[in-house]
Structures are given as C-alpha cells and as structure tokens.
Amino acid sequence: MRLAIVTNTYPPHDISGVGTLVVELAGQLWASGHEAVVLTRRAAPGDPFARTTGGPKLLFPLAVAGAYLRSARERPFDGVHVHESDGVAVALLVRLARFLRRPSGRARVVATLQVSYVRERRAVRVVRAGGEVLSRPTAAERAFAWLRAPVLALLGRATARLADRVVAPSRATAAELEADYGAAAVTVIPNGIAPVPVSPSPAGRDRARPLRAEAESRGGPVVLYAGRLRTRKAVAVLLEAFARMWRDHPGAVLVLAGDGEQRPALEAQARRLGIDRAVRFAGAQPRDAMAAEYAAADLFCLPSLYEGFPLAILEAMAAGLPVVATAVAGVPEAVADGVTGRLVPPEDADALARALAELAADRERARRMGEAGRRRIEADFDISTVAGAYLELWRGLLDAG
Length: 401
What we know:
Elements: E1 2-6, H1 17-31, E2 35-40, E3 50-52, H2 60-74, E4 79-83, H3 88-99, E5 108-112, H4 117-122, E6 127-129, E7 132-135, H5 139-162, E8 165-168, H6 171-180, E9 187-188, H7 202-218, E10 222-226, H8 235-246, E11 253-257, H9 263-273, E12 279-281, H10 287-296, E13 299-302, H11 311-318, E14 323-326, E15 341-344, H12 349-361, H13 363-381, H14 383-400
Parallel strand pairs: 1-2, 1-4, 2-3, 4-5, 5-8, 8-9, 10-11, 10-13, 11-12, 13-14, 14-15
Antiparallel strand pairs: 6-7
Helix pairs in contact: 1-14, 2-3, 3-5, 7-10, 8-9, 8-12, 11-13
C-alpha cells in the first residue's frame, strides 16, 4: 500500500500533537511493509518520509495539491490521509479524478479531524474563575475567532464531505464533527504515542537532573503544563489554582512549557499573585527537552476550556505522571478520574487547587496513579495499536473500493 499523508504541522519546525502523530504513524507504516509519503511544509534535512512544499502556512492547502500531483505521477497512491482541513484541495483532486474515471481516482481518502473549529472558536473568550475575570483574548486571538476559525470550520466541513471516511480521536469529538460538520458515521481512533519519546536521551537526562535537584531542594512538587499559552488553554486558571496550593506547599514549582499570545499577561499575573519566583516559563521545547521536563515533574496539569484528545496528556501518562485536567471534550476518555489522575470542571480554580494539593500531599497515591496511567498507555494508546487500527481501516476501505 502506498499512502500519502498530508499535514501542515510537522516536527521539528512545528511542535504539535498532529505532527508528532504523523511521524510515529509513518514510521509504523514503513515498519509494516507499506510506503508512507508525508507531504508537508517543512521538515528536517534528510527526513526519510517527508516531501516539502515550502511557502507560507496559509497557502499550504494549494501548494500541497501540486506536491501530491507530482508524487502521484511517479506512482499512484492507494490512499490519501489528510489531517485537519489542510488536505482539502488534495481530497478535491481525488474526488474530481474519481468523477472523471481517472486511475488516480481509485485512491481512498481518510480525514483525521482533531477538533471542531466551531467549538474552538467558542473557546476564544474571557476566562473567569469564581466570577473574577482572569484573562481576555488578545487581538490576535480575536482575529482568529472572527476570521480564521470560520474559514477553517468551512474547510473542515468540505473535508468531511469529500473524505471516504472521517476519523476523530475521541467519541466526544466524533459527536462534535457529526453535529457541526455534517460528518456521517465518524470512526473513532484515539491518538497514540511511542514510549521512546518520553524517555530522555543521555543529554535529556542531564537536563532533567538540575531541574529535579532544584525541585527536591525546595521540597517539591513540580507541576508541569505543556501546550500553547492561549486563551482556550486557560493557563490563567492554573496560575490562580497554583497560588492557592502554594500557600500550603511553598516548595512547589510550576513549569509552563510552551509559548503563545497569552505569555505576557500570564507573566504579569504570576507577579501579581506573588508566585513569580515559583513559576518557570520554559517556552516551546523540542521533544527531547520535553522528555526531560516530564522526567523532572511530579504532576501534570491541563486546565483547558476545550480540547480534542490532547497528546500532551498521553505523553505525561507514558512518563508515569498523574494528570489533573478539566473534564472537557475527549479528556475524560484519556484520564480515568481517581485512577490515572483527577478531573475537575473548567474555570474552577478552587477545584483545581484542591486536586493539585491532594496529590501533592499524598505522593504514594500520586505514584500509583502515574503507574496506572503508564499501564493504560501500553494497553490502549501505544502507537503500534493506533497504527494497527488505521491499517485495518485502510485495508477495509481498499478492499471495498
């Protein structure tokens, strides 16, 4: 089987859950004796899977259509796997070829859609906790909500209609795509990870040691957040909750690994709360550096207003960390409340603070939750299991086609 995988975001230039998933999936397909060609905008020199288009991100859907045609001329593809709406033009080309009864029209199209942009647009709003306004969208975020998100939702609907099969990473996301995009009979295949990326290399372990030593010297625990610093992630609620927890655990450290539009406001909030000396803004990190952050942490927290099926939670669980997260969208399908972590309502700083303090005070319970999370990754979310589910889907589509 020859498969074209279309994605706008791809490591190491773009650090995202989608890009990480594509890398792992392409590797698993090649290991299974299939050929995967990743059509993307930028890639590392010598990447064995990728063919790049270059150019600006906004023009990628058109540029990748040309790259697809050039690659298909070498040898036709059996299938096209598009991620989000970046492959809408490629999906349209395949449908057009099918209508004209061209050989390239025999390819089947699968679209993996991680979120509904209808719901993500709604999550770009004022963030409150206990009636107090904690953060407001920046001008760039408001522009996304009013300009880009509607276009992405429109392209998402088109992608869902053009695809032979739509895949969502969670049951909650599948229901959103059916309601918002008119997608029919969405298949649920969760995101997956390989266990290796969350184990630091020797260089990564060297990086983790001083972080771990700093935490131990202060009495810990280290709470880690990983993701973009944007409104829908509600990191302002995490800062408020951490400030309340910190009163009883003055040795606690909060590490925010990521960057984004909200960073200046969050830095000001940390100073205003008097916890700036206990909060480290680590910025966006490559995968090996993130492995060191996971290794140095005791707890992982994701306080989002909206998510699809976040890869950061899977990485934290694979690293043996208990997860404290908000019970939104697909998160409860990854985190078992009371077993692998704790789930709290969104925008509830008191509940978030209690959950963090509870695990900070009971390290043995936190350790057991972390171990349960690691076992769940091995059983349900290992990338080989996920790749196997995609291979089964592709075989069924090609046999039927």
